[in-house]
């Protein structure tokens, strides 16, 4: 079993800094992988610091897991896997809270986080905020995450129609993000990856500039993982991406 992974983050066409972070690691035996995207917020420097702190905390917790033989996770339940990932997110949340202590300039910093731990072809996905994870299977695109936003809540309760979402007030307001003083419960999803299937993690800078209906054509035109990532970011910039654009893509070979 092999995984091909590529990632890219771009400042976009409007922002003065890039507050997104992307990261990925392969396990020592090549049979597991970890991917993440974090989209920081909270001022010019605050967002950059928050997303970096989240990434560092997750990798610190998960690195020993990736170094262990994948066989040691045989029989690991979804609940147990979720708890492991929840622990890494809790560490990230604690690090952000500690990082802003005593610095008034950082008192509003926080970040979204979406991460996937792929073990023996099964992806375990957790997220907080509006960064997303998609399953790409041929030309079929399936979103595996639900945005933690005011707009998504309004869509779910029928307050607005999907066509009205781009114009809704408070459309960019998150209902959940790392950096909150209370404990954060992640949303969890798991999925089997067939040969050739892909997991795509991204910040909202990609989805706002490049709707997922356009992705299948990009996949058809770019056969390797690195080319797909570069083409998606390039297309977002051509569409005048107004936010940082970040993508991490895993293909099961």
Tell me what you see in this structure.
This protein is α+β, with helices and mostly antiparallel strands and 253 residues long. It has a single domain (3-138, 177-252), classed as 4-Layer Sandwich (Phosphatase 2c, domain 1), CATH 3.60.40. Helix content is 31%, strand content 28%. The chain has helices spanning 46-67, 78-100, 150-156, 204-209, 215-221, 225-238, and strands at residues 3-10, 20-26, 32-41, 110-111, 113-119, 122-128, 132-137, 140-143, 187-192, 198-202, 245-252. The strands form 2 sheets. Strands 2, 3, 4, 5, 6 and 9 form a 6-stranded antiparallel beta sheet that branches. A 5-stranded antiparallel beta sheet has the order 1-11-10-7-8. Helix 1 runs antiparallel to helix 2 (78-100). The chain is globular. The N and C termini lie close together (7 Å). The relative contact order is 0.21. The mean pLDDT is 94.
């Amino acid at each position: 079993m092999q995984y091909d992974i590529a990632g890219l983050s771009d400042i976009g066409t409007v922002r003065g800094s890039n507050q997104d972070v992307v990261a990925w690691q392969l396990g020592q035996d090549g049979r597991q992988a970890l991917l993440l995207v974090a989209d920081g917020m909270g001022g010019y420097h605050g967002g950059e610091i928050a997303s970096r702190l989240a990434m560092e905390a997750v990798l610190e917790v998960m690195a020993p897991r990736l170094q262990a033989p994948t066989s040691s996770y045989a029989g690991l339940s979804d609940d147990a896997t979720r708890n492991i990932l929840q622990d890494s997110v809790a560490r990230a949340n604690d690090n952000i809270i500690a990082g802003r202590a005593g610095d008034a300039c950082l008192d509003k910093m926080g970040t979204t986080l979406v991460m996937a731990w792929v073990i023996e072809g099964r992806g375990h996905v957790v997220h907080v905020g509006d960064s997303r994870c998609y399953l790409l299977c041929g030309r079929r695109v399936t979103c595996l995450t639900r945005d933690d936003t005011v707009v998504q809540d309004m869509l779910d309760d029928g307050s607005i129609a999907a066509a009205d979402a781009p114009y809704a007030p408070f459309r960019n307001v998150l209902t959940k993000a790392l950096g909150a003083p209370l404990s954060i419960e992640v949303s969890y999803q798991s999925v089997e990856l067939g040969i050739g299937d892909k997991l795509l993690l991204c910040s909202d800078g990609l989805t706002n500039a490049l709707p997922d209906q356009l992705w299948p054509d990009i996949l058809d035109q770019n056969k390797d993982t690195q080319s797909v990532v570069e083409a998606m970011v390039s297309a977002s910039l051509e569409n005048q991406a107004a936010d940082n654009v970040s993508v991490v893509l895993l293909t099961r070979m």
